[in-house]
Design goal:
Largest sheet: 9 strands, antiparallel
Mean pLDDT: 85
Order of helices and strands: HHEEEEEEEEE
CATH topology of the largest domain: lipopolysaccharide transport protein A fold
Distance between the termini: 111 Å
Strand order of the largest sheet: 1-2-3-4-5-6-7-8-9
Helix content: 10-25%
Number of domains: 2
Strand content: over 45%
Length: about 190
């Protein structure tokens, strides 16, 4: 066999091997539709604003976030630099628009399961008659099925004449109870 025929056969074999390697490598790097839905958000937004209204047409919640991502496969919403407002419409005559402002570095919600806020969580009332002026904690978890707010982290609650601190707390919204399990410390200031 001549050198030219041998070169043609080797070139053909190498071309076939290269084509097979290319086809194999193209198939191994692809993600399935399920993997794409699991890894990547279905929706993202920057400078996000949302308002939720009750059945009477009154504003219940306002939400603002710098970045929001929604993962449809997990019913998960994540948000960065979050500010939310809750409006209580019980006493529309004496205190219209009464409610609370909640700020956190990050938030995460899984529909009908839980919500959690992480990093510099601040809660403040937007009405002057509130006995609580400020709540500060680094992390809070809200179990939406049990209606319980809890955290192993520290919490500070300040009012006009008191400051309450502790760690590992639980708020049962069903029973309207608040329990600090570790290192509770309360300071009362007499009114002058």
């Amino acid at each position: 066999m001549s050198v030219t025929v041998r070169s043609i056969i080797i070139a053909a074999l190498l071309s076939i091997a290269a084509a097979l390697l290319y086809r194999y490598s193209a198939n191994t790097g692809k993600l399935s539709a399920d993997e794409i839905n699991e890894r990547f958000p279905s929706f993202t937004a920057t400078n996000f604003t949302a308002e939720l209204y009750n059945e009477k047409g009154l504003l219940n919640y306002s939400i603002f976030a710098r970045d929001v991502s929604f993962y449809e496969s997990r019913d998960l919403i994540t948000a960065d630099y979050l500010a939310g407002f809750y409006y209580d419409h019980e006493d529309l005559v004496n205190q219209p628009g009464r409610g609370w402002q909640i700020i956190a570095d990050q938030g995460e919600v899984v529909f009908d399961r839980y919500a959690k806020l992480t990093g510099n969580v601040h809660v403040q009332p937007n009405f002057p008659t509130s006995p609580i002026e400020e709540i500060i904690t680094p992390y809070v978890h809200f179990d939406l099925t049990a209606n319980i707010i809890s955290s192993p982290e520290t919490i500070t609650i300040r009012g006009r004449n008191f400051e309450n601190q502790g760690a590992n707390y639980e708020i049962d919204l069903n029973q309207n109870t608040f329990v600090i399990k570790d290192h509770p410390h309360v300071v009362y200031h007499p009114e002058t």
